[in-house]
Specification:
It is built from eight helices and no strands. The protein is mostly helical.
Amino acid sequence: MCRVPPVHRLVASSFGLGFIPRRLWGNDSGAGTFGAALAAIISVVLWSADAWQQVLVAAIFIGLSLWSAAPFATGGQDPNWVVMDETGGTLLALVGLSGWPWLAALVVARLGDITKWPPGVAASERLPGSLGITADDAVAGLYGLGVGWLLTAFT
């Protein structure tokens, strides 16, 4: 059996953030929220950047998720500590937003990922390998982005 390079684990865990819950309360519950928190911080730093630059950053993180999660996606597994997918999906949700629309997009994306209630989120999670790990967060992120942009348009 091949040993997974440590860089995959580091990137898949959003640079170690996915391991924080295990250290704090002994299990991985809620680890995705730590990955989403990284995205929120990055998004705030990028508020003054153009939307295309924010899309590029989200695409890079989604690509990192696809790459880094691949070794851990065996047998339909989606380990809770793998949170780069939450980071990428949340960055997608926050493109071009600030203020209340930004907050609403963040909440919708997280709730969509956690509950899988929006159409397409649960189905995308069933895709094979790292695509399934990443796609549900990207789809939930698109729902958050839609809500955020609608709020922006009507305020």
